[in-house]
Amino acid sequence: MREITILSGKGGAGKTTVAAAIASLAGNAIFCDNDVDAADLHLILNPEIKEEYRFDSGTIAQIDPGVCTNCGLCAEYCRFDAIHYDPSGQLYINPFQCEGCRLCERICPVQAITSHTNTNNSWYISDTRFGTLVHAKMGPGEENSGKLVTCIREKAKQLATEKGADFIISDGSPGIGCPVIASVTGTDVVLLVIEPSLTGIHDAERLYKLVRSFNITTFALINKFDINEEITEQAESFLKTNDIPLVGKIPFDTKFVESMVEGKTIFEYTPGSDLCKIFEKAWRIMS
Q1: Residues of 83-106 as b/e, b for ≥16 C-beta within 10 angstroms?
Q2: Spatial separation of the C-alpha atoms in residues 25 and 167, rounded to whole Å
Q3: For residue 250, is pLDDT > 80?
Q4: Are the beta carbons of 12 and 227 closer than 8 angstroms?
Q5: Per-residue confidence at 243, pLDDT binned at 50, 70, 90?
Q6: pLDDT, tens digit, for every residue of 34-77?
Q7: pLDDT band at residue 113 under the 50/70/90 scheme
Q8: 95: CB partners within 8 A, 6+ apart
Q9: Is 223 in contact with 7 (CB distance < 8 Å)?
Q10: pLDDT higher for 120 or 260?
Q11: Domains, the chain, ranges and CATH?
């Protein structure tokens, strides 16, 4: 069993489009959407949810206005500026700013503050036309995205072992943050999707520096290479300097947008096209 994780240094590079195309090629595989903060692979794979689980992402504090004396001690000591007065003069805690440290709960002289587990997140095991998909949904501003990625990756590996899958195909988050670190830890292969723009090159370099620190086999694919051939040459130079195999260059084509609108992969929308052949060649190299 081999896990291939698809990453990009920035959003909009085409990472999920690539992941969906690979879904058409992978055969006996388990799929995992590690982009838990903004999951979108399900928009193409159209999963049928079979199992749903809650995910605890820390604690959130609340003030009981019937007990609170509005002494202001909690607001004074909150390092995250999460406690404020409302227009009526009552203290309240902004759940989007609260980090769940529970200091306010401990120092409240009248015990008006309590903390509860935040369960505004879920993860799922679903069936798709290509196989099993493990994916998740986080609420806005929620924390512990890296922990959630680890959770669903572990489940994907368990299912892959049980089903005797040949591959785990993981669609990661853009950037280099916690969910990306959780995505690359222990993976076998990273496919780096690069957009030929100044920010695309810059962010790809940052991402590769992270991936290299884990000593992971890395391949690259340049998406929309013909929108800026000068920067595409810079990208190819970067890849050559770092001995990163370039498995394909995909031209800009509105058929990708059209296929996503239809909820299809490029193989389902334009079977046998030159676009499909590029992905087939890339897959042969990586697998």
Answers
A1: beeeeeeebbbebeebebbebbbe
A2: 11
A3: yes
A4: no
A5: very high
A6: 999 889 999 999 999 999 999 887 788 999 999 999 999 999 99
A7: very high
A8: 60, 141
A9: no
A10: 260
A11: 2-45+139-286 (3.40.50.300), 59-117 (3.30.70.20)
Q: Which tokens sit at 148? A: 């959630």
Q: How far is CA 134 from the centre of its chain?
A: 12
User: What's 262's DSSP letter?
Assistant: T
Q: How far, in Å, CA of 124 to CA of 72, rounded?
A: 42
The pTM for the full model equals: 0.85
In the structure encoding, which two tokens stand for residue 263, read together? 């909820």
Which two tokens mark 272?
């046998």
* Cα–Cα distance measured from residue 26 to residue 19, given in angstroms and rounded to the nearest whole number: 10
Q: How many C-beta atoms surround the C-beta of residue 48 within 10 A? A: 11
Phi, psi of 188 (to 5 degrees): -90, -40
Say if residues 280 and 24 touch (Cβ distance below 8 Å).
no
Identify the band that residue 96 occupies on the pLDDT scale cut at 50, 70 and 90. Answer: confident
Q: Provide the pairing of β-strand 189-194 with 59-63.
A: unpaired
pLDDT in tens, 130-161: 999 999 998 776 778 899 999 999 999 999 99
What's the full length of the chain, in residues?
A: 287
DSSP per-residue codes, 196-237: SSHHHHHHHHHHHHHHHHTT-EEEEEEESGGG-HHHHHHHHH
For residues 189 and 218, is the Cβ–Cβ distance under 8 A? yes
C-alpha gyration radius of the chain: 22
Residues whose CB falls within 8 Å of the CB of residue 156, separated by 6 or more in sequence, listed in order: 30, 31, 32, 134, 168, 170
Structure tokens belonging to residue 166: 């040949």
Handedness of CA 221, 21, 52, 118 (dihedral sign): positive
DSSP code of residue 184: H
Beta bridge partners of 3: 168
Tell which residue, 221, 219, 239, has the closest CA to residue 4: 219
Tokens at 38, concatenated: 């903004």
